Amino acid sequence: MHILRAPTAELEALGAAVTAREIAQQPDLWAQTVASYRKEESRIQAFLQAVTARHGRVRVLLAGAGSSAYVGETALPFVKLTGDEGVFEFQATPTTSIVANPTSYLRRDLPTVLVNFARSGNSPESVAAADLARQLVRDLYQITITCAPEGRLARQAADDARSLLWLMPEQSNDQAFAMTGSFTCMTLATLLLFDRRPLAEKERIVSRVCAMGQEVIGREEEIAALAALDFQRIIYLGSGPLAGIAREVQLKILELTAGRIATAFDTPLGFRHGPKSFVDGRSLVFVLVANDPYTRRYDVDMLRELHEDGIARLVCGVMVAHGDQVGERTFGFAEENSDVPDGYLALPFTLFGQVMALHTAVKVGNRPDTPSPTGTVNRVVRGVTIHPFREPE
User: Is the whole model's pTM more than 0.90, yes or no?
Assistant: First the structure.
């Protein structure tokens, strides 16, 4: 079944027209994001260099709410490896945690670059986290990576000399319920921002990643066949940057099916410590296999173990072929992609999970563009009361 390329009338009848379009356009948006970075690189690097020249080493706090928080979770292991930790202390904390416990995460005497990730820029917690940071941190700088120029975070950044605003491609501001292109573009932007590779090398990698993304779209029928299996549970496992992706793509299933499919996520090593009990005969398990040769050993070990257990309805590796004899079903990419770093590999792997979620939602009779039948879960979070914060005496 082809949803991504179905006629508009058919997609509208399924309630999937907007989500399908926004999933399918992502490889083009990734190319636009790296082109934007090429244009903005001097301005971005000048901003960071001015901060580090003034303070030496600074903390970089990657923050967002919901899927935007998973941008930071995905990017963190990669930027700690490829960024300059001599001058940047990278951390990732959801704005939802910052707002509830501000003094646990914000330090007055610690110079901080708060990197705000936001699709709309209007989530109450993200706006409040920025307000709290200004209240509590003496030397605060902000980088706002957002998809909406009219959002509150973008407007605030435009008026702040200590802030840098980087707008993602216009079409990344998803209009459907689920974050798709907004998530992958903001993730890519963060990798480009802190990865110390030369620009030409980053552009080469992104070109390869765009081709992998187009391949995922072209192989939609294979993913549809997986979604058509009889299952009630789905588990995603990944290590390093792919741990954040495991969390994000399980959320896509949960959101788009309105909870009709139970989901779980973990790392392959963490999964054995109790969460593996979740696997039963109506479970699909996807292992997002790293390209990093050391990490990959653990991922492949888990693939083999789950296959030998013989419990799950399906065990499938999403992976680049390296000649591994894993002995079970895989959604594989050609070995020529084996040099794509795991941070960037996260993008086509996310696209795989989004297509899987789209087909699963349609299969269970839910409407992906507006998946919450009760209306209690919204595109931009509502109902949050932000309470005034007073610093302890």
Answer: yes
